[in-house]
Write a structure and sequence with these properties.
This protein is an alpha+beta fold. About 25% of the residues lie in helices and about 30% in strands. Belongs to the class-II aminoacyl-tRNA synthetase family. ProS type 1 subfamily.
């Protein structure tokens, strides 16, 4: 492609609203342009990268036995109502009505559509296992779109769905997709980890995220310093066994703590430590209010609360609700003499406390010398807290450390979550009706492009891996008015194309400095400069990744290119 015939609007200045490198460089190098908050146009260079990522995905999904289809982005509300998600998915679901008043949603995901489709067309066990996928634009009304393509309201996604007659069949396909995803992100040359995760609004169980390691990642990855254990912070299991202090049990004492509300304030006021306090929080789990207890130096993990209580929606109770229920402000909440109707659940660490401190359910008062088993009853002890850096690894090997990550892929075992809710079934070998067992597998395609840009850049611009670079080679004649330079540049351009290289020829009448800056911004693997030695058939080759530069004759260029691109 000749640069004068395409659209690559590079920018000299750093965009003011771009917070991270990938967003900055994708804008500056002319890969994307914002249309509205969280909505972008993919310019010609970005489209080429997206196509290559999608082709890698298609190859690996086909190898895993999946067939591609394309479902509508516009989905009738009835399907979401049938699954129960129309009201539970949240404000991220973009909803609209047609001229007849019929409700629709712009597809944030396609579990409902695919379940309905397969239910209509696959009635026999003989057609399973069946795995179908699509690559399509998705829509989510993000409250705060940010980081360019990493958190947008319109994005490109690959979503796949598998249908099975047994858990064993689901497990087998799940592992095939896991391998396909590993291959996809490896071929994109990303530094990533597969981690245990929560299924969120999708539902189901047994799920893993593929996380690209990055300091700007919005998710925290927990990993062992001595094994291959890795999990999302929300799902990493905290220790269950704690050594209980050998302190002599003291008599329960109620003490005045005027104007002391937080754990830090109360512990300081009573000359104690936050780890000796009990933090009491009231949650609304679906339609029931419950009290969750954790140690004062720990934080409640609401995902674990939701999963532990098998609730669909869990959220902290409002101050007004708490004061109405317990007639007490939140700064003095505690489990002693609590309303009998409210269930109490506690993290394992609470059970090991002795002579602890907790709220007295009376404004300005706390209890000291609290013994969990003596002074109050817990309905059940579970893992309710976030694991902390330095805690023992859940697999028993080493201690955990934290890293930041960008989620680019997610695989789920949905089980019968959607098939039972939507009455989707097939006839088994005995002619009996059975609900499909399902799996779900997603990749953020546009997010992967951004994640690659985040990992592959330097102070001058992007540095694309060969496999997904928009072009392999950037040919730059220094002076397009010089006949020898223009002729050699055109000759090399045709030579590279005939040898199946993808090449961008900068035929613009721009100053050399502008061309070189643009070339570094765009970040193609190899730059070939045609300059003053064009009459001698000599050009300068620069490897973008390493910065290495050398001169070669046009007769030496092809074997050298093959070697450079193979090693890049």
């Amino acid at each position: 492609m000749k640069q004068s015939r395409t659209l690559i609007p590079t920018l000299r200045e750093m965009p003011a609203d771009a917070e991270i490198k990938s967003h900055q460089f994708l804008l500056r190098a002319g890969f994307i342009r914002q249309v509205a908050s969280g909505v972008y146009t993919y310019m010609p260079l970005a489209k080429r990268v997206l196509d290559k990522i999608e082709n890698i995905i298609r190859e690996e999904m086909e190898n895993a036995g999946a067939a591609e289809l394309l479902m509508p982005a516009l989905q009738p509300a009835e399907l979401w109502q049938e699954s129960g998600r129309w009201h539970t998915y949240g404000d991220e679901l973009m909803r609209l009505r047609d001229r007849h008043g019929r409700g629709f949603a712009l597809g944030a995901t396609h579990e409902e559509v695919i379940t309905s489709l397969v239910n209509d067309d696959v009635q026999s066990y003989k057609k399973m296992p069946l795995t179908l996928y699509q690559i399509q634009t998705k829509f989510r009304d993000e409250q705060r779109p940010r980081f360019g393509l990493l958190r947008g309201r319109e994005f490109i996604m690959k979503d796949a769905y598998s249908f099975h007659t047994s858990e064993e069949s689901l497990d087998e396909v799940y592992q095939k997709i896991y391998k396909a995803y590993t291959n996809i992100f490896t071929r994109c040359e990303l530094d990533f980890r597969a981690v245990l995760a929560d299924s969120g609004a999708i539902g189901g169980k047994d799920t893993q995220e593929f996380m690209v390691l990055s300091d700007i990642g919005e998710d925290t990855i927990v990993y062992s310093d001595t094994s291959d254990y890795a999990a999302n912070l929300e799902m990493a299991e905290a220790p269950q066994n704690y050594d209980k202090p050998t302190d002599i049990e003291k008599e329960l004492v109620k003490v005045e703590t005027p104007a002391q509300k937080s754990i830090e304030e109360v512990s300081r006021f009573l000359n104690s430590h936050p780890g000796h306090c009990i933090k009491s929080l009231v949650f609304k789990a679906d339609d029931e209010y419950v009290m969750i207890l954790v140690r004062g130096d720990h934080e409640v993990n609401d995902i674990k609360v939701k999963n532990g209580l098998n609730a669909k929606i869990v959220e902290l109770a409002e101050h007004v609700e708490i004061e109405h229920l317990l007639e007490c402000p939140i700064g003095s909440l505690g489990p002693i003499n609590l309303n009998e109707k409210m269930k109490v659940y506690a993290d394992h660490a609470v059970k090991a406390l002795a002579n602890a401190i907790c709220g007295a359910n009376e404004d300005g008062y706390h209890y000291m010398n609290v013994q969990p088993c003596r002074d109050f009853t817990v309905d059940k002890y579970m893992d309710f807290r976030f694991i902390k850096e330095g805690d023992p690894s859940p697999d028993g090997k080493g201690k955990v450390q934290f890293a930041r990550g960008i989620e680019v892929g997610h695989i789920f075992k949905l089980g019968k979550t959607y098939s039972e809710a939507m009455g989707a079934s097939y006839l088994d070998v005995n002619g009996r009706s059975q609900s499909y067992i399902m799996g779900c597998y997603g990749i953020g395609v546009s997010r992967t492009l951004s994640a690659v840009a985040e990992q592959f850049n330097d102070e001058n611009g992007l540095v694309w891996p060969v496999n997904i670079a928009p072009y392999h080679i950037h040919v730059i004649p220094v002076n397009t008015k010089d006949e020898a330079q223009s002729y050699l540049a055109e000759e090399l351009y045709e030579l590279f194309k005939s040898n199946r290289y993808e090449v961008l020829l900068d035929d613009r009448s721009e100053r050399p400095g502008v061309k070189f800056k643009d070339s570094d911004l765009i970040g193609l693997p190899v730059r070939i400069t045609v300059g003053k030695k064009a009459n001698d058939g000599i050009v300068e080759v620069k490897v973008r990744k390493t910065g290495e530069m050398f001169e070669v004759t046009k007769d030496e260029i092809l074997p050298m290119l093959a070697k450079i691109l193979q090693e890049a």
